[in-house]
Amino acid sequence: MLLSLRGSVCLYQGEELGLPEADVSYDRIQDPYGKVLWPEFKGRDGCRTPMPWNNGLHAGFSVVEPWLPVDPRHLGLAVSHQQHDPQSVLSATAQLLAFRRQHPALFDGDIALVDVGEDLLGFIRQSAGEKILCVFNLTGKQQSASLPVAIKEALSGHGFDIQLDGTELTLPAYQAAYLLTT
């Protein structure tokens, strides 16, 4: 959804790998807020640990010890593990970024909300020559909806699974659809 909304996309370091927030012990905390408000608020350091490039020393981030520790849980999610796996979070992120670049409406088009029922989120992104209905299932269950606009074609290349029969859309849990409209 983030890659379909108006404005610049900001991926925070580690999002493209699906990294969980790191556990940073109090003695390694650098964030002033974390030091003062510990343990109620551990600060922001759990989101600022080194990027895991590989399983090497300091996860390939540095040859010297970095200012924050490498979370051992991040090693299995390192770039070296994900870059050639088409099912990885990194591959999915790269695929979605490439898909977005191919469709001007997704990066500079206008946006208008569309009612696709209470279980789905829908909006149209439109720029000169392109009008895309974006529909998102943010639930853990398959959802269906009768679409309120005519569909020219279902776009591909984004990595999501959809079922479209005319204007009847079925989305599995946590999936999205991108549809060219008239």
In short:
By secondary structure, this protein is of the alpha+beta class.
* Unreliable stretches covering 5 or more consecutive residues: none
Q: Report the principal-axis shape.
A: elongated
- Ends distance: 22 Å
Determine the mean pLDDT.
Answer: 95
Characterize the biggest β-sheet.
5 strands, antiparallel
- Can you write the helix and strand succession as a string? HHHHEEEEEEEE
Beta-strand fraction estimate: 15-25%
Helix content: 10-25%
How many separate helices?
Answer: 4
Kindly state the number of beta strands. 8
> Radius of gyration in whole Å, from Cα?
20 Å
The structural class is alpha+beta
- Biggest sheet: strands side by side, in what order? 1-2-3-8-5
What attributes does this structure have?
182 residues; five-stranded antiparallel sheet; alpha+beta; three-stranded antiparallel sheet; 16% helix; elongated
Can you describe what's shown?
- With about 180 residues, the protein is of the alpha+beta class.
- Helix content is about 15%, strand content about 20%.
- It contains 4 helices and 8 strands; from the N terminus they run H-H-H-H-E-E-E-E-E-E-E-E.
- The chain has helices at about 30-35, 80, 90-100, 105-110; strands spanning about 110-115, 120-125, 130-135, 145, 150-155, 165, 170, 175-180.
- The strands form 2 sheets. It has a 5-stranded antiparallel beta sheet.
- A hairpin with a 2-residue loop joins strand 6 and strand 7.
- It is elongated, with a radius of gyration of 20 Å.
- The protein starts with about 30 loop residues before the first helix and ends with a strand.
